[in-house]
Amino acid sequence: MKNQNILKDKSYLFAVRIVKFYKFLKDDKKEFILSKQVLRSGTSIGAMVEEALQGESKMDFIHKLSIANKEANETRYWIRLLKDTDFIDEKLSQSLIFDLEELIKLLVSIIKTTKNSVAK
């Protein structure tokens, strides 16, 4: 049976969604600046999760997940900015932010749990 990692799977699926979102912004909305920012930060979340899973130590694991959390918060900022500048509507913004909030909750929980296990 395949070993499942919810954070790994969700962050990858979010990255796929962000790539499609980038294409929509670029092709349909003709937005070329903010779209690159959201593409970079939104796909970095999953990349950092992958790196964390190959971490050399628990501290390395925590560090990489902390970077993923920062990228998730940055992505949320770009999505809010795209909504507030009328590139995307409220419904799309809420949907993307809902997925981000789920990732952020997972990241924060895993970081806290791992920090507690290191402190013992």
UniProtKB/TrEMBL annotation:
A family per Pfam: 23S_rRNA_IVP
InterPro entries in the cross-refs: 23S_rRNA-intervening_sequence, 23S_rRNA_IVS_sf
Name the UniProt record assigns to this protein: Four helix bundle protein
Superkingdom as given in the UniProt entry: Bacteria
